[in-house]
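Private note to self, pasted from the team thread so I don't lose it. C-alpha cells:
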C-alpha cells in the first residue's frame, strides 16, 4: 500500500509505455496491483497520445515508425495508478506540434504530470512537480535521440533535447589486428548540458527530490552504455539529481550507483503494443525507490516479463533470479550489487575495488575524457590507457 506517513513515500518507475489496444486497461492487469502501491508512479510515454496532426518527415533511424495511439488509451495509465509521464523521446513529435499539444492537454485533463515536452522551450525544460506526504518530487526529461524539428524553441512546441557529437578514431593496433573496434567519442553539446545542469539545480531549489530522465544510448541490440550517457548521468547527479531513469534501447541495460545515487541506463520496454519481444527481449522491471526523511533510503526492483500479448507480469523464483543475474552481468563495469530478498531485488554498491569505489584516484572513470572515450573499447583496454596516463583528465 502507498505510504500515508509524512516524509515517507514509495516512488515507482518503469520503462517505455505504448498502449494501443481496444481495451486499454487489460494491458496492466497483472502488474496494476503492484503499481498501485506507489505514491508516485512514473513511465516513459513512448508514442504520442493524439488523433490529430500528420506524420512528420525526416525519420531516418533503422526500423523507425511514427508512433501514436488514440486518447482512449490513457485509461490504461489511470487504471494502473500512473501519475507522471516522461515525454522527451524520439516519438512524441512524430505528429508534429499539433499532436504534441493535444497530448499535453489530454494528460493535463487526466491530472497526469508530464516533463520534457512543452508549448515552448521554457515549458519543455520546466520540471513536473508531484507532491505526496509532504515530499515534493521534481521530474525533468531530455532526449538525445531526435531529428530536426523535434526540439522546442522560444515560440514553438517541442521537446527538451541534448545534442551529442560523435567522432571515430582508428586504434593504434589496427594494422596488427584488422577489424579491431574504432575508438568512438561521444560528447554532449556544452550549451545543452549546461542548460540541463541549471534545470536540475533550479529544480532542487523548489523540490526535495529530483528525478532526471534521459532518452539516450544505442538501440537495436548494441547492449552497451555509451560514453556520453555516463557523462550526462553523473553530471545530473553532481548538480543535485537523486535518480536517473534511462530509456530508448528497449532492453534492460546496466545500473550504476554513483555517489550513492542510482543511474538506470535503460529500464527496457514495459508495454510496447505490437513490438516484437524476440529482438529486444521480454525481461523488464518495476523500479522501487523508498523515501524516508525526504531522501531515497533504498533502491530495489521487481523483476517482470512481457508476455506474447505484450502484457507485463511479475516474476518470482528462478525466473526472477535470472533477471538479477542479467543485471549483474551488464553492470559489472560499475561494480553494482544485486541481492534478492522476498522476491524483490535490492540494488547496492559499488563493490570494493571497482573504479566507482575509488574516488579521487587518477584511474577513476569519473567525468570527462576517460568517460567519453570508452564506448566501443573493452574496459581493460581503457583502464590500461588511463593507468598509463594517456587519457589523463586535465
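Design output:
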Amino acid at each position: 500500500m502507498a505510504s500515508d506517513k509524512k516524509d515517507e513515500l514509495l516512488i515507482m518507475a518503469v520503462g517505455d509505455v505504448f498502449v494501443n489496444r481496444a481495451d486499454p486497461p487489460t494491458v496492466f492487469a497483472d502488474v496494476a496491483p503492484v503499481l498501485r502501491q506507489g505514491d508516485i508512479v512514473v513511465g516513459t510515454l513512448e508514442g504520442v497520445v493524439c488523433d490529430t496532426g500528420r506524420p512528420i518527415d525526416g525519420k531516418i533511424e533503422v526500423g523507425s515508425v511514427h508512433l501514436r495511439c488514440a486518447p482512449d488509451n490513457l485509461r490504461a495509465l489511470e487504471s494502473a495508478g500512473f501519475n507522471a509521464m516522461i515525454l522527451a523521446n524520439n516519438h512524441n513529435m512524430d505528429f508534429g506540434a499539433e499532436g504534441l499539444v493535444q497530448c499535453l492537454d489530454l494528460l493535463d485533463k487526466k491530472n497526469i504530470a508530464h516533463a520534457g515536452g512543452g508549448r515552448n522551450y521554457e515549458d519543455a525544460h520546466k520540471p513536473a512537480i508531484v507532491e505526496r506526504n509532504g515530499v515534493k518530487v521534481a521530474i525533468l526529461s531530455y532526449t538525445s535521440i531526435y531529428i530536426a524539428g523535434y526540439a522546442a524553441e522560444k515560440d514553438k512546441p517541442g521537446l527538451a533535447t541534448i545534442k551529442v557529437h560523435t567522432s571515430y578514431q582508428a586504434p593504434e593496433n589496427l594494422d596488427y589486428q584488422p577489424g579491431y573496434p574504432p575508438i568512438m567519442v561521444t560528447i554532449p553539446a556544452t550549451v545543452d548540458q549546461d542548460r540541463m545542469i541549471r534545470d536540475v539545480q533550479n529544480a532542487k531549489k523548489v523540490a526535495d527530490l529530483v528525478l532526471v530522465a534521459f532518452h539516450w544510448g544505442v538501440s537495436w541490440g548494441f547492449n552497451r552504455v555509451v560514453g556520453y550517457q555516463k557523462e550526462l548521468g553523473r553530471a545530473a547527479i553532481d548538480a543535485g539529481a537523486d535518480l536517473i531513469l534511462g530509456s530508448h534501447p528497449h532492453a534492460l541495460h546496466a545500473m550504476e550507483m554513483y555517489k550513492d545515487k542510482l543511474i538506470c541506463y535503460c529500464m527496457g520496454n514495459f508495454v510496447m503494443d505490437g513490438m516484437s519481444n524476440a529482438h529486444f527481449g521480454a525481461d523488464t522491471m518495476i523500479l522501487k525507490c523508498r523515501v524516508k526523511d525526504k531522501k531515497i533510503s533504498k533502491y530495489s526492483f521487481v523483476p517482470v516479463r512481457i508476455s506474447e500479448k505484450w502484457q507485463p507480469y511479475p516474476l518470482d523464483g528462478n525466473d526472477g533470479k535470472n533477471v538479477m543475474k542479467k543485471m549483474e552481468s551488464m553492470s559489472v563495469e560499475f561494480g553494482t550489487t544485486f541481492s534478492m530478498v522476498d522476491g524483490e531485488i535490492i540494488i547496492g554498491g559499488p563493490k570494493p575495488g571497482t573504479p566507482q569505489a575509488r574516488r579521487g584516484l587518477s584511474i577513476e572513470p569519473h567525468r570527462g575524457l576517460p568517460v567519453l572515450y570508452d564506448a566501443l573499447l573493452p574496459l581493460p583496454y581503457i583502464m590500461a590507457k588511463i593507468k598509463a596516463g594517456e587519457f589523463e583528465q586535465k
